[in-house]
Amino acid sequence: MTLQTSTEAQPRRPPPRETAKILSDCRDLAVHRLLLSFSSTLDKIGDMLMDRAGRTDIREEQQLFLDARGALRGERANLMAEFEQKLRKLIDERISGKEEIKADFSKVDANKLTLVDTSSMDESVITGNIIRVVENLCHDELMSFNRGVGHLLGKPDLSTEANPLAPATIVDAFTAALKGVKTENRIKFQILKELNQAPLSEINSIYADLNRHLQNMQVMPGAGRPSIVNKGMPGERRRADGAKAESAGAPMPPAPPTCRRSRCRASAAQHRCTPSHRWRRHPPVTSPARPSSRRRHCTRA
After folding, report:
1. Backbone φ and ψ of 259, nearest 5°
2. Residue 108, burial from CB neighbour count under 10 angstroms (0-12, 13-18, 19+)
3. Coil vs helix vs strand at 11
4. Does the reported pTM lie above 0.90?
5. Nearest-5° angle of CA 153, CA 156, CA 160?
6. CB 3.0 to 4.6 Å from 267: which of 33, 101, 256, 277, for a disulfide?
7. 108 vs 178: CA distance, rounded Å
8. What is the DSSP letter of 112?
Protein backbone atom coordinates (compact mmCIF):
# COMPACT_ATOMS: atom_id res chain seq x y z
CA MET A 1 0.00 0.00 0.00
CA THR A 2 1.38 3.40 -0.95
CA LEU A 3 0.49 7.03 -0.33
CA GLN A 4 -0.35 9.31 -3.20
CA THR A 5 -1.38 12.94 -3.11
CA SER A 6 -4.80 13.83 -4.42
CA THR A 7 -6.53 17.19 -4.35
CA GLU A 8 -9.93 17.75 -2.85
CA ALA A 9 -12.82 18.83 -4.99
CA GLN A 10 -12.53 22.54 -5.61
CA PRO A 11 -15.46 24.65 -4.41
CA ARG A 12 -17.65 26.36 -6.95
CA ARG A 13 -16.55 29.85 -7.80
CA PRO A 14 -19.32 32.29 -6.83
CA PRO A 15 -20.80 34.70 -9.38
CA PRO A 16 -19.13 38.12 -9.82
CA ARG A 17 -21.55 40.02 -7.58
CA GLU A 18 -21.14 37.53 -4.75
CA THR A 19 -17.38 37.46 -5.26
CA ALA A 20 -17.21 41.25 -4.96
CA LYS A 21 -19.23 41.11 -1.74
CA ILE A 22 -16.96 38.46 -0.19
CA LEU A 23 -13.85 40.44 -1.08
CA SER A 24 -15.41 43.61 0.33
CA ASP A 25 -16.21 41.79 3.56
CA CYS A 26 -12.61 40.58 3.75
CA ARG A 27 -11.40 44.14 3.20
CA ASP A 28 -13.67 45.55 5.92
CA LEU A 29 -12.69 42.83 8.38
CA ALA A 30 -8.98 43.31 7.67
CA VAL A 31 -9.14 47.12 7.91
CA HIS A 32 -11.06 47.01 11.20
CA ARG A 33 -8.65 44.53 12.79
CA LEU A 34 -5.58 46.32 11.44
CA LEU A 35 -6.70 49.66 12.87
CA LEU A 36 -7.01 48.07 16.31
CA SER A 37 -3.67 46.30 15.92
CA PHE A 38 -1.77 49.39 14.76
CA SER A 39 -3.34 51.49 17.48
CA SER A 40 -1.87 49.10 20.03
CA THR A 41 1.43 49.05 18.12
CA LEU A 42 1.67 52.84 18.24
CA ASP A 43 1.30 52.68 22.02
CA LYS A 44 4.22 50.25 22.14
CA ILE A 45 6.27 52.46 19.82
CA GLY A 46 5.67 55.43 22.14
CA ASP A 47 6.92 53.38 25.09
CA MET A 48 9.96 52.25 23.08
CA LEU A 49 10.83 55.86 22.18
CA MET A 50 10.50 56.94 25.80
CA ASP A 51 12.75 54.09 26.89
CA ARG A 52 15.38 54.98 24.29
CA ALA A 53 15.32 58.61 25.36
CA GLY A 54 15.95 57.58 28.96
CA ARG A 55 18.87 55.29 28.10
CA THR A 56 20.90 57.64 25.89
CA ASP A 57 23.35 60.27 27.07
CA ILE A 58 23.49 62.07 23.72
CA ARG A 59 21.34 65.17 23.79
CA GLU A 60 20.49 65.14 20.07
CA GLU A 61 19.32 61.51 20.13
CA GLN A 62 17.30 62.08 23.25
CA GLN A 63 15.55 65.05 21.70
CA LEU A 64 14.87 63.05 18.51
CA PHE A 65 13.18 60.25 20.47
CA LEU A 66 11.10 62.68 22.51
CA ASP A 67 10.05 64.62 19.39
CA ALA A 68 9.02 61.40 17.66
CA ARG A 69 6.96 60.37 20.68
CA GLY A 70 5.36 63.82 20.79
CA ALA A 71 4.51 63.64 17.06
CA LEU A 72 2.82 60.27 17.56
CA ARG A 73 0.72 61.60 20.40
CA GLY A 74 -0.21 64.83 18.64
CA GLU A 75 -0.85 63.45 15.14
CA ARG A 76 -2.19 60.03 16.09
CA ALA A 77 -5.81 60.66 15.11
CA ASN A 78 -4.83 62.08 11.72
CA LEU A 79 -2.33 59.27 11.17
CA MET A 80 -4.88 56.52 11.84
CA ALA A 81 -7.54 58.20 9.70
CA GLU A 82 -5.10 58.58 6.82
CA PHE A 83 -3.95 54.97 7.30
CA GLU A 84 -7.52 53.68 7.00
CA GLN A 85 -8.16 55.75 3.86
CA LYS A 86 -4.91 54.68 2.18
CA LEU A 87 -5.44 51.04 3.12
CA ARG A 88 -8.95 50.87 1.68
CA LYS A 89 -7.84 52.61 -1.50
CA LEU A 90 -4.85 50.32 -2.05
CA ILE A 91 -6.90 47.17 -1.44
CA ASP A 92 -9.65 48.27 -3.85
CA GLU A 93 -7.12 49.19 -6.53
CA ARG A 94 -5.30 45.87 -6.27
CA ILE A 95 -8.54 43.87 -6.26
CA SER A 96 -9.60 45.61 -9.46
CA GLY A 97 -6.21 44.79 -11.00
CA LYS A 98 -4.96 48.35 -11.20
CA GLU A 99 -1.17 48.40 -11.19
CA GLU A 100 1.12 51.24 -10.31
CA ILE A 101 2.81 52.80 -13.32
CA LYS A 102 6.55 52.32 -12.94
CA ALA A 103 8.97 54.68 -14.57
CA ASP A 104 10.85 53.40 -17.60
CA PHE A 105 14.40 54.55 -16.88
CA SER A 106 15.58 53.45 -20.32
CA LYS A 107 13.79 56.45 -21.81
CA VAL A 108 15.08 59.03 -19.33
CA ASP A 109 17.52 61.65 -20.56
CA ALA A 110 20.87 61.06 -18.86
CA ASN A 111 21.46 64.83 -18.62
CA LYS A 112 18.40 65.17 -16.37
CA LEU A 113 19.41 62.52 -13.85
CA THR A 114 19.94 63.61 -10.26
CA LEU A 115 21.21 61.90 -7.15
CA VAL A 116 18.63 60.02 -5.11
CA ASP A 117 18.06 61.20 -1.57
CA THR A 118 19.64 58.68 0.81
CA SER A 119 16.67 58.98 3.16
CA SER A 120 14.40 57.58 0.45
CA MET A 121 16.71 54.63 -0.03
CA ASP A 122 16.84 54.02 3.74
CA GLU A 123 13.05 54.17 3.90
CA SER A 124 12.79 51.58 1.12
CA VAL A 125 15.15 49.26 3.00
CA ILE A 126 13.15 49.60 6.24
CA THR A 127 9.78 49.01 4.60
CA GLY A 128 11.11 46.02 2.68
CA ASN A 129 12.41 44.51 5.90
CA ILE A 130 9.07 45.02 7.67
CA ILE A 131 7.26 43.29 4.80
CA ARG A 132 9.60 40.29 4.95
CA VAL A 133 9.21 40.01 8.71
CA VAL A 134 5.41 39.98 8.49
CA GLU A 135 5.44 37.48 5.62
CA ASN A 136 7.63 35.13 7.64
CA LEU A 137 5.45 35.48 10.73
CA CYS A 138 2.26 34.78 8.76
CA HIS A 139 3.62 32.27 6.23
CA ASP A 140 1.20 29.38 6.83
CA GLU A 141 -1.91 31.55 7.10
CA LEU A 142 -0.81 33.55 4.06
CA MET A 143 -0.49 30.40 1.94
CA SER A 144 -4.08 29.44 2.77
CA PHE A 145 -5.29 33.00 2.26
CA ASN A 146 -3.61 33.16 -1.14
CA ARG A 147 -5.57 30.05 -2.20
CA GLY A 148 -8.86 31.57 -1.09
CA VAL A 149 -8.34 34.99 -2.68
CA GLY A 150 -6.85 33.39 -5.79
CA HIS A 151 -9.97 31.22 -6.14
CA LEU A 152 -12.22 34.29 -5.93
CA LEU A 153 -10.11 36.25 -8.43
CA GLY A 154 -9.78 33.31 -10.83
CA LYS A 155 -6.03 33.05 -10.18
CA PRO A 156 -5.35 29.63 -8.62
CA ASP A 157 -1.59 30.26 -8.39
CA LEU A 158 -1.89 33.68 -6.75
CA SER A 159 1.38 34.69 -5.09
CA THR A 160 1.73 36.68 -1.90
CA GLU A 161 3.00 39.72 -3.78
CA ALA A 162 -0.12 39.71 -6.00
CA ASN A 163 -2.56 39.30 -3.09
CA PRO A 164 -4.51 42.56 -2.64
CA LEU A 165 -4.40 42.13 1.16
CA ALA A 166 -0.76 41.08 1.36
CA PRO A 167 1.61 42.51 4.00
CA ALA A 168 3.07 44.79 1.33
CA THR A 169 -0.31 46.52 1.00
CA ILE A 170 -0.48 47.10 4.76
CA VAL A 171 3.06 48.47 5.04
CA ASP A 172 2.70 50.66 1.94
CA ALA A 173 -0.52 52.16 3.31
CA PHE A 174 1.03 52.98 6.68
CA THR A 175 4.14 54.46 5.05
CA ALA A 176 2.00 56.67 2.82
CA ALA A 177 -0.07 57.78 5.82
CA LEU A 178 3.06 58.54 7.82
CA LYS A 179 4.25 60.91 5.10
CA GLY A 180 1.17 63.06 5.77
CA VAL A 181 2.13 63.68 9.39
CA LYS A 182 3.09 67.32 9.94
CA THR A 183 6.60 66.91 11.27
CA GLU A 184 10.19 66.66 10.08
CA ASN A 185 11.29 63.83 7.83
CA ARG A 186 13.88 62.61 10.33
CA ILE A 187 11.14 62.18 12.92
CA LYS A 188 8.97 60.25 10.47
CA PHE A 189 11.89 58.02 9.63
CA GLN A 190 12.53 57.36 13.32
CA ILE A 191 8.91 56.28 13.77
CA LEU A 192 9.27 53.93 10.81
CA LYS A 193 12.46 52.48 12.34
CA GLU A 194 10.62 51.83 15.59
CA LEU A 195 7.86 50.05 13.67
CA ASN A 196 10.54 47.78 12.26
CA GLN A 197 11.46 46.81 15.85
CA ALA A 198 7.90 46.55 17.17
CA PRO A 199 6.12 43.17 17.55
CA LEU A 200 3.74 42.54 14.63
CA SER A 201 2.71 38.95 15.30
CA GLU A 202 -0.93 39.94 15.83
CA ILE A 203 -1.29 40.31 12.06
CA ASN A 204 -1.07 36.52 11.83
CA SER A 205 -4.32 36.18 13.81
CA ILE A 206 -5.97 38.61 11.37
CA TYR A 207 -5.10 36.36 8.43
CA ALA A 208 -6.33 33.36 10.43
CA ASP A 209 -9.71 35.09 10.92
CA LEU A 210 -9.88 35.92 7.21
CA ASN A 211 -9.26 32.25 6.38
CA ARG A 212 -12.03 31.18 8.75
CA HIS A 213 -14.36 33.67 7.09
CA LEU A 214 -13.61 32.22 3.65
CA GLN A 215 -14.11 28.70 4.99
CA ASN A 216 -17.49 29.68 6.44
CA MET A 217 -18.43 31.10 3.04
CA GLN A 218 -17.35 27.75 1.49
CA VAL A 219 -15.00 29.38 -0.99
CA MET A 220 -11.70 28.13 0.43
CA PRO A 221 -10.08 25.50 -1.83
CA GLY A 222 -8.72 22.49 -0.02
CA ALA A 223 -5.01 21.77 0.03
CA GLY A 224 -3.59 18.52 -1.34
CA ARG A 225 -4.02 15.61 1.10
CA PRO A 226 -2.53 12.10 1.05
CA SER A 227 -4.78 9.25 -0.03
CA ILE A 228 -4.18 5.50 0.33
CA VAL A 229 -3.86 3.51 -2.85
CA ASN A 230 -3.75 -0.30 -2.67
CA LYS A 231 -1.52 -1.79 -5.34
CA GLY A 232 -2.25 -5.43 -4.43
CA MET A 233 -0.28 -8.28 -2.85
CA PRO A 234 3.38 -8.99 -3.73
CA GLY A 235 2.39 -11.85 -6.07
CA GLU A 236 -0.01 -9.62 -7.96
CA ARG A 237 2.60 -6.90 -8.26
CA ARG A 238 5.12 -9.44 -9.59
CA ARG A 239 2.70 -10.64 -12.24
CA ALA A 240 2.02 -7.08 -13.26
CA ASP A 241 5.75 -6.31 -13.41
CA GLY A 242 6.30 -9.48 -15.43
CA ALA A 243 3.61 -8.51 -17.91
CA LYS A 244 5.20 -5.07 -18.34
CA ALA A 245 8.64 -6.61 -18.80
CA GLU A 246 7.35 -9.15 -21.31
CA SER A 247 5.62 -6.48 -23.36
CA ALA A 248 8.87 -4.50 -23.35
CA GLY A 249 10.91 -7.51 -24.44
CA ALA A 250 12.82 -7.80 -21.15
CA PRO A 251 13.32 -11.11 -19.32
CA MET A 252 10.93 -12.12 -16.60
CA PRO A 253 12.04 -11.28 -13.04
CA PRO A 254 13.13 -14.31 -10.98
CA ALA A 255 10.55 -16.03 -8.83
CA PRO A 256 10.85 -15.63 -5.06
CA PRO A 257 12.05 -18.65 -3.06
CA THR A 258 9.35 -21.08 -1.91
CA CYS A 259 9.11 -23.56 0.92
CA ARG A 260 9.96 -27.27 0.38
CA ARG A 261 7.17 -28.48 2.59
CA SER A 262 4.38 -30.01 0.57
CA ARG A 263 1.27 -27.90 0.16
CA CYS A 264 3.14 -24.80 1.33
CA ARG A 265 3.20 -22.18 -1.41
CA ALA A 266 4.25 -19.23 0.72
CA SER A 267 7.16 -17.07 -0.27
CA ALA A 268 10.01 -16.18 2.06
CA ALA A 269 8.43 -12.83 2.96
CA GLN A 270 5.04 -14.43 3.76
CA HIS A 271 6.28 -17.69 5.36
CA ARG A 272 4.65 -18.88 8.54
CA CYS A 273 6.19 -22.39 8.77
CA THR A 274 8.98 -23.48 11.09
CA PRO A 275 12.40 -21.85 10.69
CA SER A 276 14.04 -25.22 9.94
CA HIS A 277 12.52 -25.38 6.49
CA ARG A 278 14.87 -24.84 3.64
CA TRP A 279 14.11 -22.51 0.83
CA ARG A 280 14.63 -23.24 -2.78
CA ARG A 281 14.17 -21.42 -6.00
CA HIS A 282 12.39 -22.90 -8.97
CA PRO A 283 14.80 -25.36 -10.60
CA PRO A 284 16.15 -24.29 -13.97
CA VAL A 285 14.87 -26.09 -17.01
CA THR A 286 17.57 -28.53 -18.26
CA SER A 287 17.68 -31.28 -20.86
CA PRO A 288 17.18 -34.92 -19.63
CA ALA A 289 20.30 -36.83 -18.70
CA ARG A 290 21.71 -39.19 -21.40
CA PRO A 291 22.58 -42.83 -20.56
CA SER A 292 26.26 -43.60 -20.20
CA SER A 293 27.91 -45.32 -23.16
CA ARG A 294 30.40 -47.17 -20.98
CA ARG A 295 29.60 -50.77 -20.12
CA ARG A 296 30.16 -52.22 -16.70
CA HIS A 297 32.04 -55.61 -16.82
CA CYS A 298 31.43 -58.19 -14.16
CA THR A 299 34.13 -60.61 -13.04
CA ARG A 300 33.60 -63.95 -11.50
CA ALA A 301 35.34 -64.90 -8.33
Report:
1. -80, 145
2. exposed
3. coil
4. no
5. 80
6. 256
7. 30
8. G
